Amino acid sequence: MRQLIIAFADMDLALKVRTLLRGCGISVDEICSSAAAVLQCVGRMSDGGLVLCPPTLPDMSASTLMELLPETFDMLAVVSSRQQSLYERPGMFILTQPFQTDMLADSIRQIMETRQLSFTRQMMDKKPRPELTSKQRSQEEEKLIAQAKYLLMNRRKFSEPEAHRYLQRRSMESGMRMADLARQLIGSQ
Fold first, then answer.
1. What is the b/e burial string over 24-36, where b = at least 16 CB atoms within 10 angstroms of the residue's CB?
2. What is the pTM of this model?
3. CB hemisphere CA count around 174 (13 angstroms)
4. What is the arithmetic mean of pLDDT over 46-63?
5. Angle between the 139-156 and 160-174 helix axes, to the nearest 10 degrees?
6. Is 114 a residue whose pLDDT tops 50?
7. What would the mean pLDDT of 173-180 be, rounded to a whole number?
């Protein structure tokens, strides 16, 4: 099961966020006040997870922390609308302030569930993966598609299935692969 780490320099804020998430039925596994503490926690976690944090922590930026996380971890950065374009990249999801508690909880669930399904598929396939065919996607492409869905959910208020159908429909209409369309959508925002 993937784990959730909350990382805010202000521990009172981190505790409030944990309380809000627990009220929505989301379990928080660790609370950290620095990137160094996040990296220590990550080292103890075998199943991967999600780090919820602001754009900067006292000892490191979210972007730098993202580069140091294992690929089994994603990041949800809570940023202002001015900072949004600075942090958009595969595996790093953005939630623009201000937001409602339900939006935060839905974003966390969507990221955790999408990655959990991908991780479960990989674990069930005990054989080495063959070369990708045109119908299979790499892990990076899956991340791009998940990020594009999240972007649509955040900006256009789509549900996850609506965002997926939107990407599928646009992909078919344009003749582009879904991953390429997702990359284009992320780049244009």
1. eeeebebbbbbbe
2. 0.60
3. 15
4. 89
5. 110
6. yes
7. 83
- CA separation (Å) from 98 to 40, 78, 106, 137? 30, 9, 15, 34
Map out the domains of the chain as residue ranges: 1-105, 137-189
Give the tokens for residue 102: 């339900």
pLDDT at 35 over 90: yes
- The reported pLDDT for the residue numbered 88 is 59
* CATH class of segment(s) 1-105: alpha beta
Which amino acid does the sequence have at 167?
L
Place of tokens 């140091």: 68
In this structure, CATH architecture of domain 137-189 = Orthogonal Bundle (1.10)
The token duo for 82 is: 């001015």
Beta strands in the chain (DSSP E): 3-7, 30-32, 49-53, 56-57, 60-61, 73-79, 92-96
Alpha-carbon gap, residue 174 to 178, rounded angstroms: 10
Are 62 and 53 in contact by the 8 Å Cβ rule? The answer is: yes
pLDDT digits (tens, 9 = 90+) for 124-172: 444 444 444 445 678 888 888 888 888 888 888 888 888 888 888 888 7
Q: Which residues contact 140 (CB under 8 A, 6 or more apart)?
A: 90
How far apart (Å, rounded) are the C-alpha atoms in residues 94 and 82? 12
Check residue 121 and give its pLDDT.
43
Residue type, 152: L
Cα distance between residue 112 and residue 72, in whole Å: 11
